[in-house]
């Protein structure tokens, strides 16, 4: 295993120092380090962060390998600075059995670009009618601890309660896609001034807020862990704030696109901006940013949702919702938050690793810890060209936008998956 010496690098925003990686761990951190056998990386002006962890990634395999595979999605993740991703269950077949989650887990191990942790479905076939094999998935080689029907809400309160009760036995988590389906039937975008002007059926904020309010009450009653996926409204933030103040075991995530883009993008009728939950208002964006800063929202999660060309390059009404996110998330965080490195490390690495229980991830570079880390050049700026992305899909909402930051290197257990901004395999 090759040793690497990163010189004059800032570790999570601290004063420049040297960082030595050897035998899969951070061997030493301090000024003036020497290692004659090590490959030297000049870290002047660069920042080293714990490897990023994504709680919400769609890798599409098995079933939609035309849009993404575990390998291509893992490569996109590594290029985005990630060392671990949690793969959502809405594959084909659905990841609702031990066999399917183990397949995804093994594909991740074979790719060996990031650690791929499968998320299991809550209900069989995501149909919302009966619980999936939660215990079997938890006991499988993949050791699933997060369960979600993402893309579909677990709308039945009785079934949601049973799921929360079941996973409590092994400290599991139910991650809810908060959408009351009877309030969003036929919806095409956020319900508001823009939808009225465009004549499109709206997706009201209350459809999200009502489910979150119900579920935090259920989680409080059961004493179980709840995670809320892709929070998108100011009202949801207030529900979460009150729940956390009462000590409810709830965590929440926000996507990069909900921190930056608004429903005004729908005026273009470009389906790349169609997403679920939809882009909201500027007031919602402001509330989400504030909640991320003060900890009501715990995590930035990408909701990386690759789609084949025919599923996006069509009329708005027929386009599938979703956007790419893995290769641009850190740049969006830097654009939104500025160089608040400790906050970025907490929201994009430490907190998601803690929630998912991913040992060895989300740990700041220090002597003796696994060398799962990313190195970024914050002064660099790059223009996003869809054709240059590692994902098999091209549905990025940031096409031809110039964003701050460039991933220089990513290390997974001491082995570089990215060097000089390029994938190593």
Please, could you describe this protein's structure?
The structure is a single chain. The protein is of the alpha/beta class and 425 residues long. It folds into two domains: 4-48 and 367-423, Urease, subunit C, domain 1, CATH 2.30.40; 51-356, Metal-dependent hydrolases (TIM Barrel). Helices cover 29% and strands 22% of the residues. It has twelve helices and 19 strands. The chain has helices at residues 70-79, 98-111, 134-139, 157-168, 193-198, 205-222, 234-245, 256-260, 282-294, 309-312, 329-337, 341-356, and strands spanning 4-11, 17-22, 25-30, 39-42, 47-50, 52-57, 82-87, 115-118, 146-147, 173-176, 189-190, 202-203, 225-228, 250-254, 299-300, 373-383, 402-412, 415-419, 422-423. The strands form four sheets. Strands 1, 2, 3, 4, 5, 16, 17, 18 and 19 form a nine-stranded mixed beta sheet that branches. Strands 9-10-13-14-15 form a five-stranded parallel beta sheet. Strand 11, helix 5 and strand 12 form a beta-alpha-beta unit. Helix 4 (157-168) crosses helix 6 and helix 6 packs parallel to helix 7.
Beta-sheet strand percentage? 15-25%
Helix content: 25-40%
Any idea how many domains? 2
Could you report the average pLDDT, rounded to the nearest whole number? Answer: 98
Structural class: alpha/beta
CATH architect. name of the largest domain = Alpha-Beta Barrel
- What's the CATH topology label of the largest domain? TIM Barrel
CATH class of the largest domain: Alpha Beta
Question: End-to-end distance, in Å?
Answer: 16 Å
**Compute the gyration radius: what is it?**
21 Å
């Amino acid at each position: 295993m090759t040793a690497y010496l990163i010189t004059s690098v800032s570790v999570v925003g601290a004063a420049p120092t040297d960082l030595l990686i050897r035998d899969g761990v951070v061997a030493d951190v301090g000024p003036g380090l020497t290692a004659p056998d090590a490959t030297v990386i000049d870290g002047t002006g660069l920042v080293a962060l714990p490897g990023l962890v994504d709680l919400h990634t769609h890798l599409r395999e098995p079933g939609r390998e035309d849009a993404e595979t575990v390998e291509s999605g893992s490569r996109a993740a590594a290029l985005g600075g990630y060392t671990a991703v949690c793969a959502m269950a809405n594959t084909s077949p659905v990841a609702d059995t031990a066999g399917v989650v183990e397949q995804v887990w093994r594909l991740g191990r074979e790719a060996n670009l990031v650690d791929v942790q499968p998320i299991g479905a809550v209900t069989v076939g995501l149909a919302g009618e009966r619980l999936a094999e939660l215990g079997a998935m938890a006991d499988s080689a993949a050791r699933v601890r997060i369960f979600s029907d993402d893309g579909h809400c677990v709308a039945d309160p009785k079934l949601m309660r049973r799921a929360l009760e079941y996973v409590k036995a092994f400290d599991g988590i139910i991650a809810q896609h908060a959408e009351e389906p009877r309030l969003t039937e036929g919806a095409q975008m956020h319900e508001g001034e823009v939808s009225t002007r465009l004549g499109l059926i709206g997706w009201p904020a209350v459809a999200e807020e009502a489910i979150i309010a119900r579920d935090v009450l259920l989680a409080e009653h059961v004493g179980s862990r709840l995670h809320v996926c892709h929070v998108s409204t100011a009202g949801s933030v207030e529900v979460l704030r009150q729940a956390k103040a009462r000590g409810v075991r709830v965590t929440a995530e926000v996507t990069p696109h909900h921190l930056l883009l608004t429903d005004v993008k729908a005026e273009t009728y470009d389906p790349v901006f169609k997403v679920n939950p939809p882009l909201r208002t500027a007031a919602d964006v402001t509330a989400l940013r504030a909640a991320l800063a003060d900890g009501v929202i715990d995590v930035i999660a990408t909701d990386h949702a690759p789609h084949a060309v025919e599923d996006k390059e069509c009329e708005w009404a027929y386009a599938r919702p979703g956007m790419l996110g893995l290769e641009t998330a850190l740049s969006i965080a830097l654009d939104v938050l500025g160089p608040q490195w400790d906050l970025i490390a907490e929201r994009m690495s430490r907190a998601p690793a803690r929630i998912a229980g991913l040992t060895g991830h989300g740990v700041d570079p220090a002597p003796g810890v696994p060398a799962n880390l990313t190195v970024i050049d914050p002064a660099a700026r790059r223009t996003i060209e869809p054709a240059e992305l590692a994902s098999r899909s091209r549905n990025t909402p940031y096409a031809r936008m110039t964003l701050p930051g460039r991933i220089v290197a990513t290390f997974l257990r001491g082995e570089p998956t990215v060097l000089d901004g390029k994938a190593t395999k």
